[in-house]
Write a structure and sequence with these properties.
The chain has about 160 residues and is mainly beta. Helix content is about 10%, strand content about 30%. It has 1 helix and 14 strands; from the N terminus they run H-E-E-E-E-E-E-E-E-E-E-E-E-E-E. A hairpin with an 8-residue loop joins strand 3 and strand 4.
Length: about 160
């Protein structure tokens, strides 16, 4: 058997094997990181029982800082649910300033976030009416919160860059 015939036979076998496999209907998720302009750290979820916090962004294989963006359009505005790669849970806030993780549910307005001006990641109490705005803030102690009344929104602590 010639070399080109063996390659052709091998390719035909591979094609037959691949066509016998079930078709994949879902696309693989793509992930982003949110880096705080003040601390240089990334938004992370280490596990489902701890509050989200900031950690180093560039540790190899560190999936805790990766978030899937799930988009939703409401009244011409785009909102995001932020689903963590490790926990599978979404970033949530209830208007108290605390930020936590919970099961992703599109009917929960506490899980919808948007970028006000391409840098300030905000959550609103009710996205239908653009209620009280809560800017996500990264603090020096590595914690994060979403206060409704704070001058921190004027500083780099409330600036998040998507990578």
């Amino acid at each position: 058997m010639t070399k080109s015939l063996r390659l052709l036979t091998g390719a035909a076998a591979l094609t037959a094997l691949l066509s016998a496999l079930p078709a994949q209907t879902a696309q693989a998720a793509s992930y982003v990181k949110f880096r705080n302009a003040h601390t240089g750290l990334c938004l992370a979820a280490v596990n489902a029982t701890e509050a989200p916090r900031q950690i180093g962004c560039s540790q190899p294989g560190y999936e805790h800082v990766k978030w899937e963006i799930i988009r939703k359009s409401v009244g011409g505005d785009e909102f995001w649910m932020l689903k963590n790669a490790i926990t599978g849970e979404c970033l949530d806030s209830r208007g108290t300033g605390s930020v936590y993780l919970s099961g992703c549910y599109s009917g929960d307005p506490g899980q919808w976030w948007y970028f006000l001006d391409r840098e300030h990641l905000l959550h609103v109490d009710t996205w239908e009416t653009r209620g009280v705005q809560h800017r996500l803030v990264g603090w020096n102690d590595r914690s994060v919160s979403a206060p409704s009344t704070s001058t921190e929104y004027l500083s780099a602590k409330a600036v998040w860059r998507v990578e």
